[in-house]
């Protein structure tokens, strides 16, 4: 009985820790920029299949739910190059958004990048004229991209606002693993790139 209670507590602590880190990362390096025009950047994930894989489908849904309620002046930018000889991640995500989710808004494709740094570099020209910028991915990955935008273009990073890529309980069972991986991928962030915006 005691062993079962200990295991239950350990699992609850691990799940809570993963949930807390995801919440924290989703609110780091974002502000409250105003304005009406916005860009939602959806970052791709390696996708050798001919259709969007599970992770890219989730990222598309997170990107589309990040569109402001009055999103008339919103552009969605799908970013990601090809894995091998297949179609670019950006194209696969756009196809999923249009054909499956019936999204009919403004879409831009950035289909050359192979790393998160390149994602950010290559979407910058598409961000110059918008008031608000949202980056949608898993929270740790989105934070990494926001930090990269801050390094490359601090003026544009001031326009970063909260995306809707964190929901309590979503990915709950794997969040501790995602948190461990996130800590590893974010290990090179500077202290001032870890500040939570509330």
TrEMBL record:
<dbReference type="InterPro" id="IPR051599">
    <property type="entry name" value="Cell_Envelope_Assoc"/>
</dbReference>
<dbReference type="InterPro" id="IPR003848">
    <property type="entry name" value="DUF218"/>
</dbReference>
<dbReference type="GO" id="GO:0005886">
    <property type="term" value="C:plasma membrane"/>
</dbReference>
<protein>
    <submittedName>
        <fullName>GdmH transporter</fullName>
    </submittedName>
</protein>
<dbReference type="Pfam" id="PF02698">
    <property type="entry name" value="DUF218"/>
</dbReference>
<feature type="domain" description="DUF218">
    <location>
        <begin position="38"/>
        <end position="153"/>
    </location>
</feature>
<dbReference type="InterPro" id="IPR014729">
    <property type="entry name" value="Rossmann-like_a/b/a_fold"/>
</dbReference>
